[in-house]
């Protein structure tokens, strides 16, 4: 989980900060009020080459994780085994040769 957060913070800092501020400012309604900002973070991270490679090589684990989140929206902690499988897979992905500093992502 930390690796994913590090990549997100490094390459999508602006989007993460805006989303974090929205969540902090709307403790009871953040799921509705911050949805667009959440989607901005998702779009940023999904366009990064490292994330793309991980999602490609761990697509089955990622699909199962997303399915679990949809089915347990009120209890995301119940998807911990799914996220553990996905992250376990992600750590085995060979990232040599993958661009880690895309020019299109300003810092």
Q: Would you give an account of this structure?
A:
This protein has one domain. The protein has seven helices and no strands. The protein has helices at residues 2-11, 13-25, 30-33, 35-46, 49-57, 59-71, 80-90. Residues 103-107 have low confidence and may be disordered. This is IMS import disulfide relay-system CHCH-CHCH-like Cx9C domain-containing protein. It holds the Pfam family CX9C.
How is the topology of this model organized?
Blueprint: H1 2-11, H2 13-25, H3 30-33, H4 35-46, H5 49-57, H6 59-71, H7 80-90
GO biological process, one term: cellular respiration
Domain IMS import disulfide relay-system CHCH-CHCH-like Cx9C: 5-49
GO cellular component, one term: mitochondrial intermembrane space
């Amino acid at each position: 989980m930390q690796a994913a957060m590090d990549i997100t913070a490094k390459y999508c800092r602006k989007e993460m900060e805006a989303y974090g501020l929205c969540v902090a400012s709307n403790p009871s309604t953040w799921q509705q009020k911050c949805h667009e900002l959440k989607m901005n973070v998702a779009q940023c991270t999904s366009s990064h080459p490292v994330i793309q490679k991980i999602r490609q090589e761990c697509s089955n684990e990622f699909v199962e994780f997303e399915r679990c989140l949809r089915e347990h929206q009120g209890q995301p902690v119940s998807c911990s085994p799914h996220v553990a499988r996905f992250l376990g897979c992600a750590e085995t992905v060979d990232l040599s040769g993958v661009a880690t500093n895309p020019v299109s992502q300003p810092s």
